[in-house]
């Protein structure tokens, strides 16, 4: 805050200024947004979180959540005040042990003013006590909390954390997590990472989960309900925990037949993407009938039962597990970089089709190119920067994967595989942009790729036949046949049907 000092003369003003610490002049509030052009109010400025410790209690019957969040952070500027993204009702905030004042502002901001200003580069501990009913809270006209018959679920993109813990809610600020939730005996609680312990007392059971690698806030998940839980180990030695709502009905068998292949698929993906980046695997299928999407919640993807309404669908499991490398391990710098997530997860489905002998990636690429006429709006969406309204448009997925096949044809299989494997290691547990990927692909392949990326990712038009043939796409004049895998791949199009219209706008 800058105070204007009124004094009768310059000397008096100077003497007053001398009484203020030199650093005070640079004290200012942290920005209410992190600077993402798609979502200006998401995330916050002035600090970086390294760890979230969430100790909560949840009552499924009333959907009431209460507890304490402890955030370990470091300031990135001298702070008079800072914000957290949060919607529930706060009763107390402490900063470095001392009570802090707080207020709400905007749609989802918790403004915190510490008792003493915070120096730049200083470690900060923030404790927030809160309670509320997540299903009763809205921001921007929507609610991302998924109420179920026996509990509640948080799994949403690009936001979901606001409904259950205070955070710096943007992928650019990743942190480790300890999530400890108490639920009534007979109810289970599922989250990310490894289950450290459970304990029961006086009719309540506490589940303690830990994510020991940096995780974006939207990838943290909360799932309380009555589940059938299966445990195992992948062939490569990663522990697998899967969970299925007890009331899935007709979809239960198809869901299990798909999600139980998680370990096998993750091991297969290492052939293309390199070592699995985490110490836990799994997936969960709660009974969330109002939404149809899936989401790559870190180590333990969320799947709507609708994904399995027509039978087993291994392709959607491939998609969400591919995100563990592309989206979770390496996350977007800004939400405009969503191709880094979705183009690659979709391409993994094409690779699985190749693996299963149901159509090569080349055959699927030819089919996608031929299936959309030049005047189709599909081509007006630019996967490299689609705009917030088209962030989860089908073009980001299919045109995005098409761009990868064009890249593969341009640089050759060996260089392409080196890029796919090297990228998650170069930017491990961090963030990167589409521009970063282009530079990396040029570095690995030794080829200039600006024109190819521009044509396939940034032009709002269908690449002309010469450009397509130059990238070895649709080389034949004949109409390509529909690949055998296409129906299963297309059945996962609902994977991005996650919106803020009551049906959910994306998820991914």
TrEMBL record:
It comes from the Bacteria. The keyword DNA damage does not apply. The keyword Transcription regulation does not apply. Residues 312-456 form the Peptidase M1 membrane alanine aminopeptidase domain. Its cofactor is Zn(2+). This is Aminopeptidase N. Residues 50-219 form the Aminopeptidase N-like N-terminal domain. One of its GO terms (biological process) is proteolysis. Its EC number is 3.4.11.2. Residues 1-24 form the signal peptide. It comes from Streptomyces caeruleatus. It is an enzyme of class 3 (hydrolase). Belongs to the peptidase M1 family. Pfam families: Peptidase_M1, Peptidase_M1_N. GO terms for molecular function: alanyl aminopeptidase activity; metallopeptidase activity; zinc ion binding.
């Amino acid at each position: 805050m800058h105070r204007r000092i009124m004094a009768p003369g310059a000397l008096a003003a100077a003497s007053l200024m001398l009484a203020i610490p030199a650093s005070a002049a640079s004290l200012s509030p942290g920005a209410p947004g992190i600077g993402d052009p798609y979502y200006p109010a998401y995330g916050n400025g002035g600090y970086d979180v390294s760890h979230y410790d969430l100790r909560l209690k949840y009552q499924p019957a009333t959907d009431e959540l209460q507890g304490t969040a402890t955030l370990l952070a470091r300031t990135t500027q001298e702070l008079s005040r800072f914000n957290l993204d949060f919607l529930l009702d706060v009763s107390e905030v402490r900063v470095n042990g001392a009570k802090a004042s707080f207020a709400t502002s905007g749609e989802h901001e918790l403004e915190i003013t510490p008792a003493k200003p915070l120096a730049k580069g200083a470690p900060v501990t923030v404790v927030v006590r809160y309670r509320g009913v997540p299903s009763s809270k809205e921001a921007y006209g929507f609610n991302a909390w998924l109420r179920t018959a026996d509990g509640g679920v948080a799994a949403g993109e690009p936001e979901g954390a606001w409904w259950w813990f205070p955070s710096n809610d943007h992928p650019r600020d990743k942190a480790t997590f300890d999530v400890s939730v108490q639920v009534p005996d007979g109810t289970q609680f599922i989250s990310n990472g490894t289950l450290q312990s459970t304990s029961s007392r006086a009719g309540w059971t506490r589940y303690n989960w830990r994510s020991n690698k940096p995780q974006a806030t939207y990838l943290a998940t909360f799932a309380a309900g009555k589940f059938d839980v299966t445990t195992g180990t992948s062939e490569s030695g990663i522990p697998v925990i899967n969970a299925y709502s007890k009331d899935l009905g007709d979809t239960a068998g198809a869901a299990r037949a798909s999600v139980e292949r998680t370990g096998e698929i993750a091991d297969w993906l290492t052939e293309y993407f390199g070592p699995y980046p985490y110490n836990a695997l799994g997936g969960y299928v709660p009974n969330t009938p109002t939404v149809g999407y899936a989401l790559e919640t870190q180590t333990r993807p969320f799947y709507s039962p609708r994904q399995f309404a027509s039978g087993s669908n291994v392709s959607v499991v491939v998609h969400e597990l591919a995100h563990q490398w592309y989206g979770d391990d390496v996350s977007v710098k800004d939400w405009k970089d969503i191709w880094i997530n979705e183009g690659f997860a979709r391409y993994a489905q094409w690779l699985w089709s190749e693996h299963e002998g149901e159509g090569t990636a080349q055959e699927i690429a030819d089919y996608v190119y031929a299936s959309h006429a030049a005047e189709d709006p599909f081509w007006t969406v630019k996967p490299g920067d689609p705009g917030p309204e088209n962030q989860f448009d089908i073009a980001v997925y299919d045109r995005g994967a098409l761009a990868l096949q064009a890249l593969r044809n341009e640089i050759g299989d060996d260089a392409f595989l080196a890029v796919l494997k090297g990228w998650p290691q170069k930017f491990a547990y961090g963030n990167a942009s589409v521009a970063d990927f282009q530079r990396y692909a040029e570095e690995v392949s030794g080829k200039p790729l600006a024109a190819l990326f521009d044509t396939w990712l940034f032009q709002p038009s269908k690449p002309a036949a010469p450009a397509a043939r130059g990238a070895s796409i649709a080389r034949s004049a004949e109409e390509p046949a529909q690949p055998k895998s296409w129906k299963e791949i297309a059945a996962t199009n609902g994977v991005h049907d996650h919106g803020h219209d009551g049906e959910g706008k994306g998820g991914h």
